[in-house]
Amino acid sequence: MTDISAASRILADAFVNHRLIDPLPADVAPTALDEAYEIQDATLALSGAKQAGWKLAVATRAAQEKIGAEGPLVGPLLDGRILSDGAQLTTNDLHFPNIEAEIAVVMDSTPAPDATSSDILDHIRSMHLAIEIADRRYHEKQDPIQTLADLNSTGYFVLGQEIEGWRDLGFIGGKVTTKSDGEILASNDDPDAWPEIFGGLEYLVGFLAKRGKSLKAGDVITTGACALPTISPHGKIEAIFDGLGTVTAEIKKV
Fold first, then answer.
1. Residue 237, Cα to own-chain centre: how many angstroms?
2. Residues 32, 35, 36, 37, Cα dihedral to 10°
3. Would you call 26 exposed, middle or buried from its count of C-beta atoms within 10 A (0-12, 13-18, 19+)?
C-alpha cells in the first residue's frame, strides 16, 4: 500500500533542499492518480510553499487518453516563482528546465462549482502569453503518476503580456515556437495539438470542487503547452506566438 506520509517527506525534502532523488521506493510510490494527488497535497504542505495558482499538464484529449486520465493533470503554481516577462534565473535555480509556451489566465472572481467553460469567461480578469519552466526532482524522467506526486513538476512561471481582446480570439491555429539562444526548441502550427484552454478551466473548476477547493481572485492558471515541452539547460528563452507576441526569460549558466 502506498505510504503517503513517507513519499511526501521524501519529495518535500528534495523540493526544499533543491536536490535530486532516485525514484520513490516501490512500497512508497503511488500507483494511481488519486494517490499521487494525495502525495502532492502533503508534499506542498510539508514544503511550506504558498500556492498562487494552478498548472495544467497533459492538456490535450489525445495525451489524456494515452494515460487513462479524465482531464488535464493538475499541480500548483507557487508564490515567488511567478515571474514577469524578461525574468532572469540561473542554472543554480533549476535541475532540468523544461520550456513550455503556454496561455495563462488570471482570475477575477470565483466560478460556481458547476460552471461551464462559457460561464468561466465572466470570472477571468485577463489572459496572457506565458512560459512555464517546469522542473523535476527526480534524477530520471518518471511516468505521469510519479511526476504528478512531485508537485506535477512545478518550477518557475513567466507571466508575459496581456492578450488584448482575448474574448474575440480563437487562439487556435497560430504558429507557436520556442527558442533558446536563437535555436528552435519546438514549433507547432497544428490546432489539434493545442491544449483545450477553456475546457481545461472547466475541468479544473470541477476537479477543485470535488476536493472542497475553488479558484479565487488573483489566481494564475496556466493551461498547458502549445508546443512540445523541451529541456534547455540555459540560454535566452523565447516563446513566440505568431500574431500575438513574444515572451522571454533567461537562464544564465553559472
1. 17
2. 130
3. exposed
Backbone angles phi, psi at 101, to 5 degrees: -80, 125
Tens digits of residue pLDDT in 163-221? 998 887 666 668 999 999 999 999 999 988 889 899 999 999 999 999 999 999 999 99
Alpha-carbon separation of residue 206 from 127, 171, 211, 215 (angstroms): 21, 23, 9, 10
Q: 35: helix, coil or strand?
A: helix
Task: Give the dihedral sign, CA 32/38/44/50.
Answer: positive
Let me know: does 87 contact 158? Beta carbons within 8 Å. yes
What is the gyration radius of the CA atoms in the chain, in angstroms? 17
What's the CA gap between 204 and 212, in Å, rounded? Answer: 12
Q: Are 119 and 112 in contact, with CB atoms under 8 Å apart? A: yes
Q: Are 222 and 132 in contact (CB under 8 A)?
A: yes
In one-letter notation, the amino acid at residue 14 is A
Looking at the whole model, is its pTM more than 0.85?
yes
* 38 Cβ contact list (under 8 Å, min separation 6): 4, 30
Asked whether 68 and 144 are in contact (CB, 8 A), the reply is no
Q: Which residues, in sequence order, are CB contacts of 195 under 8 Å at separation 6+?
A: 56, 59, 60, 72, 102, 103, 223, 224, 225, 226
Between vectors from CA 146 to CA 134 and to CA 23, what angle results, nearest 5°? 100
Residue type, 194: W
Yes or no: say if 51 and 78 are a contact pair by the CB < 8 Å rule.
Answer: yes
> So what's the pLDDT on residue 171?
60
